[in-house]
From TrEMBL, chains A, B, C:
One of its GO terms (biological process) is ammonium homeostasis. InterPro entries: Ammonium/urea_transptr (IPR029020), Ammonium_transpt (IPR001905), Ammonium_transpt_CS (IPR018047), NH4_transpt_AmtB-like_dom (IPR024041), RhesusRHD (IPR002229). It is a multi-pass membrane protein. Keywords: Ammonia transport, Membrane, Transmembrane, Transmembrane helix, Transport. This is Ammonium transporter. It comes from the Bacteria.
Amino acid sequence: MQVIMEKLFLSEFLMASGESALDATAKVDDLMAISVEGLFTANNVWMMLATVLVFIMHLGFAGVEAGFSQSKNTVNILFKNTLTPVIGILTYYIIGFNLMYPGFEVPGWFSFGGFFLDVPLNGNSTEYASGGYTYWTDFLFQAMFAATAATIVSGAVAERIKISSYLTFTLLFVGIVYPIIGSWKWGGGALDAAGFYDFAGSTLVHSVGGWGALAGIILLGPRIGKYVNGKVIDKPGSSVPLATIGIFLLWLGWFGFNGGSVLSGKPGAVSYVLVTTSLAACTGALGGLFAGYFVFKRLDFGMVLNGVLAGLVGITAGADVISPGWALVVGLVAGILVVFSAVTLDKFKLDDCVGAVSVHLTCGVWGTLAVGIFGVDTTGNALPFLPQLFGVAVCGITAFTSAFLIFFLLKKAFGIRVSEQHELEGLDSHEHGIRGYTIVYDE
Amino acid sequence: MQVIMEKLFLSEFLMASGESALDATAKVDDLMAISVEGLFTANNVWMMLATVLVFIMHLGFAGVEAGFSQSKNTVNILFKNTLTPVIGILTYYIIGFNLMYPGFEVPGWFSFGGFFLDVPLNGNSTEYASGGYTYWTDFLFQAMFAATAATIVSGAVAERIKISSYLTFTLLFVGIVYPIIGSWKWGGGALDAAGFYDFAGSTLVHSVGGWGALAGIILLGPRIGKYVNGKVIDKPGSSVPLATIGIFLLWLGWFGFNGGSVLSGKPGAVSYVLVTTSLAACTGALGGLFAGYFVFKRLDFGMVLNGVLAGLVGITAGADVISPGWALVVGLVAGILVVFSAVTLDKFKLDDCVGAVSVHLTCGVWGTLAVGIFGVDTTGNALPFLPQLFGVAVCGITAFTSAFLIFFLLKKAFGIRVSEQHELEGLDSHEHGIRGYTIVYDE
Amino acid sequence: MQVIMEKLFLSEFLMASGESALDATAKVDDLMAISVEGLFTANNVWMMLATVLVFIMHLGFAGVEAGFSQSKNTVNILFKNTLTPVIGILTYYIIGFNLMYPGFEVPGWFSFGGFFLDVPLNGNSTEYASGGYTYWTDFLFQAMFAATAATIVSGAVAERIKISSYLTFTLLFVGIVYPIIGSWKWGGGALDAAGFYDFAGSTLVHSVGGWGALAGIILLGPRIGKYVNGKVIDKPGSSVPLATIGIFLLWLGWFGFNGGSVLSGKPGAVSYVLVTTSLAACTGALGGLFAGYFVFKRLDFGMVLNGVLAGLVGITAGADVISPGWALVVGLVAGILVVFSAVTLDKFKLDDCVGAVSVHLTCGVWGTLAVGIFGVDTTGNALPFLPQLFGVAVCGITAFTSAFLIFFLLKKAFGIRVSEQHELEGLDSHEHGIRGYTIVYDE
């Protein structure tokens, strides 16, 4: 700043002393540096804010999952959700970032840029030419993203998975599976070349996580007492306020998740995305409310909350190419889908503690396809449908197969489910030695 | 960014090849575009951050209201507070934005700019010339604001209002009443022409919401068992930590509520507002603490928390025109007022579950009048008092009458209060079929 | 913005009418103003965001402390944690800011710039030439910092300290002790001249708070029933989810705490700091997990959470001068240290309710020394070790002695500990008249 100020004074001095046009030429290059730095700083501030917002989504997921699951397993869930971003960020540092953005020579299916971060030559470089942010911002933003894919699995498999199995799965899924799939589109790989469009990850993040969750609950089986004589037995969550905090924090974080996916602070583009994102969240809530009332004949608050998430997941693939009006439709449909998806899963005795498969997989697929239905590029042309279907299929098959394989091998090798006694008595007392809540008033 | 980089290289190339002064002229226009984009981006990033912060106030309100009300009604309150921003954003999209900023031909009392958003011709426009943000940022920031007016009502009428009545009221109050009143000042209407000053909404948002709340609790009547034999019976809230989370999130959000009302990221103006806002919140807490101790003879934590809000509401009308020193006074008085207002309401058997009328109406009026007492414009002249009184009266009469009418008609048509049995047993089990908290450790 | 737009049109007009090179000269100075304002606005937006993030750390501390302490004292803890930033901001306004940044004539140990804020001549000045932010942003950012030092003490002394003693201590510690110590480095005082390096306050904030906490628990003595027959008796906290919310909010806030300590939005420098900060938090969690398992033979979630904080405190002194790779080591060691520190304190019957001394003092010292081991300045030279040791010693002796003296005098004058009956029955019912949680379902 002091340098800038000196230049300002210099300029005034030159003007006062009757500078020539040639002096102006010299000043122009000073100015160029300041102007470019100002724009770059503004863009990077937005991207750092987006990073911070995506980070807080991990607290959001923790809240939703701990709030919607039983009090005897609260600590176990929070333990998983705290270690998930830890593992996610570290694996992304060690291997993920360079798997996802390997610098394909030609668009392909696999490439690897080497272990660890590729520290720019000049250390704290501001000259990272890839876009509106620095190398470091890029890494951290993408690392926060990566960890969300595993978090999605966490909620579905809660209350009966062995903690060691979950952590091993997370290590492999976030460290290897997620970044390789991501590279196909965001790293400039084969899906990108095929015309597949996924703005912020309805498929690459959410459905990938959702497929992982589905593989997990198939191999784990339902919780004891969940399906009895053809009936679905509710397992009341410990705290609806905690789940509500989680949902609001997820909506908050989505402003960074989608808004940051513009990869700069470009005013029109980013703010447009925030609007479509919010509108879809709103109609998602209404969709969940209406469908929930239709199915359960009550004002089902859980379905309103999951409806918000459904709308958000749904708009994520096309938040920048779908109009505000169609965003309302995308969200509404997602909110309705999430209810019927949850009911359908229960019919197949697929026990998903928090509705993660319905929210992230069902609505992730819907949102990706919606890009091929409602999406319009900047020149006003409709985006094609078939590449969307292709991308959904390719990513889905890969994510599900990989997750199934990991869980299957873990199951054969060590078992992935806790003992019946531990499940009934709760994971907190057995694995962690403390209770989630201890509310007493007498010594 | 790539374009910018190319220009930077071009500049260096020109310099190296001995450019003339005329080349500099051409570069100047390149530079202008970058400079303007940099400043615009920075301003818009701040406004998007402010939008995000105002959004999280809805979680703040949810926390305060669910924390301060009884555990048997927790889900019902969270349900209302989740749907309030949903309804608020959607109605603002459909009708509110164009009611509030209709583009008055001459300053008046009513004009309407048409349904839905007025999408800029070039789609993702960055050329929204009204200020330091885009059209989309403008809409979303104002939409987040709109929904707060209804949320204020939600807390006061909790624990006995019919959910259908509340949602219908919200639809009309946020969709129509709030934006019309807002248009009188912020839309360039008649109150603006009359010299009324309300920086960020002590009157236009908070007292409008507070008047709505007052109308609601008059027509609803107090909760069963609240006033017995001339005594006020405490109804302990479910969770003080939840209420505290709410208050901190509201303070956090207020940085966006007031800071964003500068309508750009102008460094001096915005940061000045953040300072006056924080100072008033602090002395508000002390005012609530001292007055609470004076009245109740205990360290009343509820009054400290409401004192924070009182200070924030109080400084909102004049955060940019009141000095830091006077901001301390505005906050302190607000913190004291909120306690005596709450006691007074109880004397009249006006049962406000969370103190919303005292916080938002009483302190909203105080803050608006304080502008006419302590406020100084940029040229150092005191702001006049009478237009403040006029604005308070006009908005108050309109807001109260409208809200009273809506609630009255709903009462006549469908009833606005739940049955005695539902109220006693709690709204959660009857309307939503789940409990707010289920903390058990044995299967 | 309108001014800018007019200039843009002017420029186009001039070009169209065949402007001369001299016209370009005039435009260059217009441009300079816009460019400088753009960069300044972007920098200041980041600093305001950092301020907002540090603010929310106070909710983080409140969550950790209320979550980790017994339910009978929940309101008391929240009361303290709400008043701590209130007192912190107000004392910093009255005296602290000018004690900490007094404008030393020569580097020294004490100077005072006068009471209250030194309002810039032009009021809402944007010309605050000290760096990438305004005078007001500077004050508020530093004020939010100041209050954290006292908050650290709050957690350690919880559950048995008299509220009046705590508030008096906070007033003196934050108002006088903290800013004087801070002035030695950040105010350009004697430690700065001695080559001591502390980027964001491992010593100046965290260990200062930690020393205060240590003094407090020595003079208070342990809680009744904490150490019985040579055994350490667990006192289960009220809510692990609340503590988890607290930890995540602290991590979130640390992006502002460390990221804002760059004192501008400089893209490379800030984003680098966010990366080292996050990596250390992650390995801190692992260090706590491993050491906790080694010591307690269980997956101790409390140690994972405190490990996150330990990593964050550890990297704070050198977040800008330590490489990402070494940041992993700094965090891991901090996470291990926090466990053994906690065990050691218990051996000496030093009862720290939330592990504040272990987190902030032990890891604050470690982090400061780590700068002298792993730190490298911008020219690639290793930072010296001895000034780090000197700074740790000088600040430690001063902070501990001052805190001890304040608590000692308060103890002699009024007593600092509540009665045995109040401690056993809980502070909430005796001092505040309400419970922290009231979860019932029958009227």
